[in-house]
Amino acid sequence: QAQLVESGGGLVQSGESLRLSCTASETISNFDAMGWYRQAPGKQREVVASMKRGGDLNYADSVQGRFTMSRDNVKNTVYLQLNSVKPEDTAVYSCYADSYSDFGDLSRLLGQGTQVTVTS
């Protein structure tokens, strides 16, 4: 089974930048969509960025203009660039990869997550 492995999390100060990486064990162009979500203690899971196979991007309002998702098909890696981070961005960030069957059934692959902590 394919795997997703995230890296790049850490401790940063408010206003700084950080880049997260998510590397797949198979060709990412096989997936119909990939994205990043985050979950902070006591809060609901939030999808912060997503990218369809064709490259269409969507961002949560909370990160629009500060976070950028990109991909490198050669490295089978997607990235999440976090700029101007805020303490409320503190969360475990995980990537996911979606595949749809011919019948429309969704299969979602999840990474293990990487912790991002922003201090004020």
Mean pLDDT: 96
Alpha carbon gap, first and last residue: 40 Å
Secondary-structure element order, N to C: EEEEEEEEEEE
Low-confidence segments, ≥5 residues, pLDDT <50?
none
Q: So what's the overall shape?
A: globular
Radius of gyration: 14 Å
Say how many strands there are: 11
Task: Give the structural class.
Answer: mainly beta
Main β sheet profile: 7 strands, mixed
What is the beta-strand fraction?
A: over 45%
Helix segment count? Answer: 0
Helix fraction bin = under 10%
List keywords for this structure.
120 residues, seven-stranded mixed beta sheet, four-stranded antiparallel beta sheet, mainly beta, 11 strands
What does this structure look like?
- This protein is mainly β and 120 residues long.
- The protein is built from no helices and eleven strands.
- Strand 7 and strand 8 (77-82) form a beta hairpin.
- The N and C termini lie far apart (40 Å).
Short description:
Helices cover 0% and strands 54% of the residues. It has 120 residues and is mainly β. Strands 2, 4, 5, 6, 9, 10 and 11 form a seven-stranded mixed beta sheet that branches. Strands 1-3-8-7 form a four-stranded antiparallel beta sheet, with no helix packed on it.
Topology:
Layout lengths: L3 E4 L2 E4 L4 E7 L8 E7 L6 E7 L4 E3 L7 E6 L4 E6 L8 E10 L5 E5 L3 E6 L1
Parallel strand pairs: 2-11
Antiparallel strand pairs: 1-3, 3-8, 4-5, 4-9, 5-6, 7-8, 9-10, 9-11
